[in-house]
Amino acid sequence: MIETILPADIASAELLDYPEDLKAHPAEEPLIAKSVEKRRRDFIGARHCARQALAQLGEPPVAIGKGERGAPVWPRGIVGSLTHCDGFRGAALAHTLRYRSIGIDAEPHETLPEGVLDSVSLPAEREWLRLAGSGLHLDRLLFCAKEATYKAWFPLTTRWLGFEDAHITFTVEEQGAGTGAGTFRSELLVPGQTGDGGAPLTSFDGRWLITGGFILTAIAHS
Crossing angle, helix 138-157 and helix 123-132, to 10 degrees? Predict the structure, then answer.
């Protein structure tokens, strides 16, 4: 599913059914030695997908560590993003010669828990939700897009980005019963200086998909 909202030159993999014999990479096991079972499965499953994506790029199946704020540590010359939610683990990777950052996120296609929307959205975003009149859970789509935005932002800036620091707008290209697809733009409301020598960040463009009970968002920033 995730590959349908990513450019063709980005490697991706996803895992819906978790193999019972799937094990952590030996060098990653210390990172989750004290974790509960769900956390272990999410960690192992997402990194399993990452190694599948690395293979698509012609790279060896290395261990993927954890850096600042838990961000994955990619091999030199690689950018990428991981995501997981109940029933879904996924990864998207590319070479740094082509992309500056990638951000993906997956969420269940369900309404946000009560009280969460006000803490993760701007007034203009809540007004759009009020007027959208969709049968889809667009409140969770907004949250999913905010998460993908942060994942694309942090590797380039190593700075926190709050929910209030990006204004997200959406287009809807198609919609059916429990399904939908379209694009989104994240306008950054804080200075976007980066550490990679590239232009400061002002916005991200992404795509979204709702299918199979999941919401998926993806940003590929070049």
Answer: 150
